[in-house]
Structures are given as C-alpha cells and as structure tokens.
Amino acid sequence: MLNLKFIQDNPELVIGKLQKKNFDASEIVGKITELYQQKNKLQVQAEQAKAEMNKISAEVGNLMRQGKKDEAETAKTRTSEIKESIKQFDLDFAAIEEKVYELQVQLPNLPHDSVPVGKGAADNEIVKSAGEMPVLEENALPHWELAAKYNLIDFELGVKLTGAGFPVYRGKGAQLQRALINFFLAEASKAGYEEIQPPLMVNEASGFGTGQLPDKEGQMYHATIDNLYLIPTAEVPVTNIYRDTIVKSEDFPLRHCAYTHCFRREAASFGAHVRG
Q1: Which of 232, 244, 239 is nearest to 257 (CA)?
Q2: pLDDT, mean of each 10-residue run, the chain (276 residues)
Q3: Distances from the Cα of 240 to the Cα of 104, 111, 198, angstroms
Q4: Helices then strands (H, E): number in the chain?
Q5: Which among 5, 110, 148, 224 is least buried, having the fewest CB atoms inside 10 angstroms?
Q6: What share of the chain is helix, strand, coil (3-state, %, to 5)?
C-alpha cells in the first residue's frame, strides 16, 4: 500500500505512474489531498482550543483564591465547552482518517520505471527468452480435447457436481495431478523452501494484506456467515504470515512453498477464451 506522505509529497508522480496501469488516480489523490488539508485546519483549531483550555484552567485557581467565585464558575463552564469541542475534533480526525484509508487502499502499487506503457499483450516487452518454441504438427489436438480423449479431465461432470470452472480429474489425470504436486513440492524443499500447508480461508485483514480487498471481492468466494474468503492462491495466506511483522534483514531471504486449491471467479470472459 502506498505511503500517505509519499502520496502527498508526490501526487503527480503517483498519478503519472499509475497511468501505465491504465488507472486514473487523479480523483483519489485529489480527495486524499483535500481531506488532509481539512485535517490540518482542524489540527490548528484543536491546538488553539487546547491552549485556551490550559490557560483558563490555570486562571480558575487564581480566581478562586481571589474570591471571584462567579468568574471562576464562568471559566469552568467555558472549560467544559472547550473539552466538548476537543472531543468533536477527535471524532472528526477519526472520520477523516477512515475516509483517507478507504481511498488509500484503492490505489495500486506503482509500476517500476522499466514497465512500458500498454493496454494488451501486444504491448508487452520481451526481456528474455530461452529454449525453442515447440512446433506442433498439423491437426494437433488442444489440451481440452486430449483430456476428453484419454478421460483425464471431465468438464461436464464438474458442471453437474458444482458448476463451470470446477473440473473433475479422473484416472491417470488425477494421478498426474497428484504426481506433479508431490514432484514440485519435493523439488522446492530440496532447493531450501519451507513447505507450508495453510488454511483455505482467510479473514478480511489477510485479504487487505495482499490486495485482494477492497476492490477484487467480486472475484472471490465469500463465506458470509463467518466473513471469511476462500483463497484465490496460496500466496495470500503464505504472504500474510508476515503481516504486521517486522522481519530482520539478517533473516532474509524467506523461502516458502505451498500447494492449495485456488478459488476464484474468472474476470470477464478471459477463462472462456483460453479454456483454462
């Protein structure tokens, strides 16, 4: 999440960089700046009120010693009024902070300077390539037809049992899945990664921690009774292991691997176009 001071000090930079992501941040950045200007004005008024209260409080004792009880009572009444106004300032501060936070979490992270401007795959820049691209023979079958031909994946049964996007792996297809999972976890462990078996649901704080919330909840499955979210990838719970934690530099690098089911709704029609 972008630092608030950085946003305030570099509004044009934030807006310009996020344009690379085709994200118009001008309205959000403008509202954050406006809210903080309001907060600064309230801060000045609150400090003035506190200074006045301290001054009057000091005078009350002197008035009492001088036998000026009526004036002392008037001063006390004024002190009570100022205390109430200070309480209101605190409420106003909290409301502004909440509004700012709601805006802040809507801003994506800034792309690196090297990221090119673009709107689609054609605008991507090839940084490195390795090996040779395979050349398929004529009339080669796509993976979904091969899966059906050899009874590896049953898409229609998945629709019957659950719905679109939930295939059933059968026979050698299921064995292949299990073998690949074990193979990659074993290889990662040999490379020094700690295997994690995380929960398949996370709370709101974890969703915010990795940026799924607040703007991607439509792509997640929500268990409303418990207010938990089914994870879209193992990265969400694994990354949140270190949420609200200060990691010492000598502890780096941190290496974790995990296998989980992934639950996410396809955005728009992308999944249909690439057949998973």
Answers
A1: 239
A2: 88 94 94 91 90 84 77 83 90 92 90 87 88 91 92 93 90 97 98 97 94 85 95 96 95 96 70 54
A3: 19, 22, 10
A4: 10, 7
A5: 224
A6: 55, 5, 40
| CATH H-level superfamily of 4-104 | Serine-tRNA synthetase, tRNA binding domain (1.10.287.40)
pTM for the model stands at 0.70
* pLDDT value of position 268: 47
Widest distance between CA atoms in the chain: 107
Helix (H) or strand (E) holding 137: none
User: What phi, psi does 254 have (nearest 5°)?
Assistant: -100, 125
pLDDT for 269: 45
3-state secondary structure of 257: strand
Q: Would you say how long the chain is, in residues?
A: 276
Look at residues 83, 107, 94, 76 and name the one whose alpha carbon lies nearest to residue 2.
107
Q: Is 59 helix (H, G, I), strand (E, B) or coil?
A: helix
Strand-pair category, 153-154 with 256-258: unpaired
Q: What is the pLDDT of residue 226?
A: 96
- In the chain, CATH 1.10.287.40 sits at 4-104
Tell me which H or E stretch contains 222.
strand 222-223
Nearest-10 crossing angle of helices 11-18, 26-65: 150
